[in-house]
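Quick one: structure for this chain?
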Amino acid sequence: MPALFVGALFVVVLLRRPDVPEASDLWLLSGSAMGTEFNVKVVAAADGVPTEEAVAAAVRDSIDAVDRAMSTYRPDSELSRFNRHGTDPFPASDELLEVVSEALRVSTLSGGAFDVTVGPLVDAWGFGPTPVASPPDEVEIAALLAATGSEHLVIDPDRGTLRKLRSGLRCDLSAIAKGYAVDRVAERLAGMGLTRFMVEIGGEVRTSGRTAAGGVWRIGVERPDPARRLVWTAVPLADRAMATSGDYRNYVERDGVRISHTIDPRRGRPISHRLASVSVIHPSCMTADALATALDVLGPDEARTLAEREGLAVLLLSRAPDAGFEEWTSSRWREIVGNTGGGADVAPGEDE
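Got it. Here's what it folds into:
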């Protein structure tokens, strides 16, 4: 699935102690999907049911089902067919309606900072599939803003339809679909009677129960530094999901000016504030995924206000004048995690 919008960065890494061997009852499943990689760790059931082969098949089937519904790379996906559809009501699956409905909710919650129709603006700034010679001017931006907007998407839950109020409106769910796929895999594993696992797709994570060693799953959040890959902090994640979004891996420089790939759909321009990374903990990975993107667009001040107003568990890392980073955590984050004590330079994959 293309990263046409901000999407969540692949910034979450798994930390494990190098001197502790993997338990024999820990299944490690990984592969490529949705334009990224997935990693699943499952502590096997004591009676061996289900089998590792059955779990692997269930994981792949769950991810592929989301890809078939929401990929913009696949011309036969449900979302691609909707994008080609006119303004008449489009019969949509429950899954597509669920994700679009949550996208619209987060858009309203964030005052339009999250918008799944922003693709044409992303393309215009040169972050789409086709290179551009120069950024859009004021006239082009105004025209694109008039042609986009989540308010032009309408869901009829009673009839099970999705409708565009403007012809040509295009929907891209890449900033929320990976989180949804994580939830679907987690729900599938739970339905098979498994209670101890970690699911990660493209940096979005959800955990259940304890690790094979009996501890809490610990997920690392990367230091938002494009020059080197280090872990800022390790987050104990128990029976929750976490998503991280930022702008430090995908950007271009024009005439010495750094241009972020993250487009503010309210202004039609790349973000220019000092917020570098946003991590959100939530019961739903789909919701955490969308919220991380929305807060990243809002910037440090508006993000703090929204996080405290809505009781969200949020970690913000902002660029400091000394070329370092400043950490801010919401009240809810501190209730769940405590003070992170971030800033330790730890290579991904190592113990903190």
